[in-house]
Design a protein that fits this description.
This protein is α+β, with helices and mostly antiparallel strands. Helix content is 26%, strand content 15%.
């Protein structure tokens, strides 16, 4: 048994010695300095040349945010739709614009796209129960559009 331990020690010691120390870089390759970080672009430069869209899907130029904007209620449906579609909401002048086109399409009971212009101070007659069910069962919601119709925020036939 003692002989086996000596044999193993004799074999292991030369192997360990042969590994030596860690390799050093060759003197012919000088160390490269890290590149200097680029300066942060200004807010104006970030949006220059980018297309932004309003809630109706119209392309608009993005002007720098203004401090003298009148108080307006935020359009949370538009900004949520923009973010959920993977786009960015950008404040341009006094409006919130989207970096991608997020059009609001509304559908009637037959699945036809219709414009929705909500009119204050009037109420349309109730939508049919079948239309309400078809719209909500597909995860959409009913929207009051004009004084005579309800429309669905998604295609109720699909």
């Amino acid at each position: 048994m003692l002989l086996n331990a000596r044999c193993c020690a004799l074999l292991v010691v030369p192997l360990v010695a042969a590994c030596g120390t860690a390799a050093t870089p060759s003197p012919s390759a000088p160390a490269q300095p890290a590149p200097a970080p680029l300066p942060e672009p200004s807010a104006k430069a970030k949006v220059a040349g980018m297309a932004f869209y309003d809630a109706q899907g119209a392309e608009r130029a993005c002007m720098p945010p203004r401090q003298d904007c009148p108080p307006i209620a935020p359009d949370t449906q538009f900004t949520d739709s923009c973010r959920l579609a993977g786009y960015r909401v950008q404040r341009c002048a006094c409006a919130a614009l989207c970096s991608g086109r997020v059009e609001r399409k509304f559908y009637d009971a037959t699945g036809q796209v219709k414009p929705c212009q909500a009119v204050p101070d009037c109420a349309p007659p109730p939508a049919s129960a079948a239309f309400q069910d078809a719209c909500t069962e597909r995860g959409h919601r009913l929207q009051e559009c004009s004084c005579d119709q309800w429309l669905c925020s998604g295609d109720p036939t699909k």
